[in-house]
Amino acid sequence: MTLQIENKKKKELKLAPITHPLLHPITVDDTEITELTFEPLTFSIYSGVDVEQDDQDVVVEEFTLALTGISEEAFDKLSTPDFNSVEKIIFRLVTKNAPDWLPGIEIGSEKIQLALPIVADDGRTITEIELKVPSVKTRKIYKAQPTDKQKQAFITHACSGLSEVEVGKLFMPDWNQLQVNIDNFLNQQAGFFQTKI
Prior knowledge:
By secondary structure, the chain is of the alpha+beta class.
C-alpha cells in the first residue's frame, strides 16, 4: 500500500533545454547566431577533453564546440561577457550534481533517479539506477586496480551494473551524483546510512 502511494506521488520531471541568449549576437557565413543551445554533456564527451590542461579557456572552448556545434570561427567571435556566461554553464555541467539541474529529483543512498534517462545496451530506457553496496572483496579488487581511471571504471560498474557504453551515456550531473553515492559506500560508516533510512 505504501509503495502504491509513493508511486502516485512521483513527479514527472523533465530537464529543461540548456540555452544562452547571446548578449551580442554574432554572424558567421551570413547567418546570425542569437542563441547557443547546449546538448547535454555526457561522461563520454567529458572523458574526451583534457580538463587538467593549464589553459582553462581551451577547455571551455572544446566543450562549447562539442556541445553547441558552433565552429571555432564562431566561438572566437563571442563577446567576452558571453564567453563568461558560457564558461559558467560549462562549469555547472562539469561540477554540479543532478539535483542542481533538476530540483525534486529522487536521490537515495542506494537508488538515484536520473535527471536525463539513457538508452541501455538492450534498448531499454534507464530512468533510475539501483546501486549495489560493494562488499569487502569488491573493495579489495577496487584498491588493486593500477590507475585511478581503472579504479573509477571498476567501482562504477560494480556498484551500478552499467556497462562502459551505458556509463558513457550518463549526463555529467548524473555521473557526479553516482560518484557521490559510490564515495559514500567506500568511506562512510554504517551509521551514516542508518540515519537516511
